[in-house]
Design brief:
242 residues, alpha/beta, Rossmann fold, seven-stranded parallel beta sheet, 8 helices, 7 strands, 14% strand, globular, binds NADP nicotinamide-adenine-dinucleotide phosphate
């Protein structure tokens, strides 16, 4: 069987994340030319580069850094089949304690960067039919999340942006969808209290968290030629009912 992503050029932000690294490995195995961004985790980015992916440092909170990245990336990639907005941050606290800086920091990385990066990379996406954009979202964006108004609002905004861009870019054959990976054990969830982890497990009929490997496999399928006619959707890839 031919590799699912043969000759596809894919860019994922946050390649160094729990989900990102699983996707980078699987996409390489499936024949893709894989590019990724990272922020602080240079050592790990180097390990991923040894596997054959190409990594770029980029602070997604900073427009100048995004500009610099795009300028270099556009020299390295002539076209873009798939763009995955996966990098994200949290600054959790309740509204009474949340500062303007905590609100803005999360919005910049989680919501403004996907808008700006997509806009900058449209010329490369237009060279492929169909090309695809995925927003990695969260159930927080639909249901809210105690102590994370900034994160929940950013993910809700991403869902709305995916649905809007699907409408705007459909005529150019760019498919835009959102993927909710479910609760995964990662750097992002390391500070989640035990009782909340326990509650998540209890709410899962399978009594499990989501697995980054399984989510990455789903993203490989969505990125492949097997999915060509779906846009404006939110895929919930998790073990807890929504
Ligand atoms: N974990 C969960 O339970 C869960 C649930 C629902 C949705 N999600 C979503 O799934 C995606 C992946 O989550 P994860 O848990 O795998 O993430 P993670 O392991 O916590 O990693 C976060 C990623 O974001 C990057 N990043 C953070 N700040 C950045 C900045 N200013 N500029 C550029 N990159 C920055 C980090 O880069 P460096 O490591 O290089 O610094 C890292 O690659 C995220 O969109 C998250 O919101 C996660």
């Amino acid at each position: 069987m031919e590799p699912l992503l043969k000759e596809k050029t894919i860019l994922i932000t946050g390649g160094t994340s729990q989900l990102g690294q699983s996707f980078v490995r699987k996409a390489l195995e499936q024949g893709a030319k894989v590019f990724f961004t990272y922020f602080r985790n240079k050592d790990f980015a180097e390990q991923l580069q040894k596997l054959g992916a190409k990594g770029y440092p980029c602070d997604l909170a900073n427009i100048n850094s995004i500009h610099e990245f795009v300028a270099v990336f556009r020299k390295d990639a002539e076209q873009l089949d798939v763009l995955i907005h996966n990098a994200a941050m949290t600054a959790d606290t309740t509204i009474e304690k949340m500062s303007e800086q905590e609100w803005d920091a999360v919005m910049k990385v989680n919501l403004k960067a996907p808008f700006y990066l997509t806009k900058q990379l449209l010329p490369l996406l237009f060279k492929v039919t169909p090309s695809k954009v995925f927003m990695v979202v969260s159930r927080a964006g639909l249901s809210g999340l105690y102590g994370a108004a900034n994160y929940a609002a950013s993910k809700g905004g991403l869902i709305a942006m995916a649905k809007t861009l699907a409408k705007e870019l459909g005529r150019k054959k760019v498919l835009v969808n959102a993927v909710n990976p479910g609760f995964m054990c990662s750097g992002m969830t390391v500070h989640v209290p035990d009782k909340v982890l326990q509650k998540n497990i209890e709410e899962s009929p399978l009594k499990t968290f989501s697995g980054p490997e399984e989510v990455a496999g789903f993203l490989v399928y969505l990125s492949s030629g097997l999915m060509r006619q779906v846009t404006g959707q939110v895929f919930h890839f998790e073990s807890r009912p929504i």
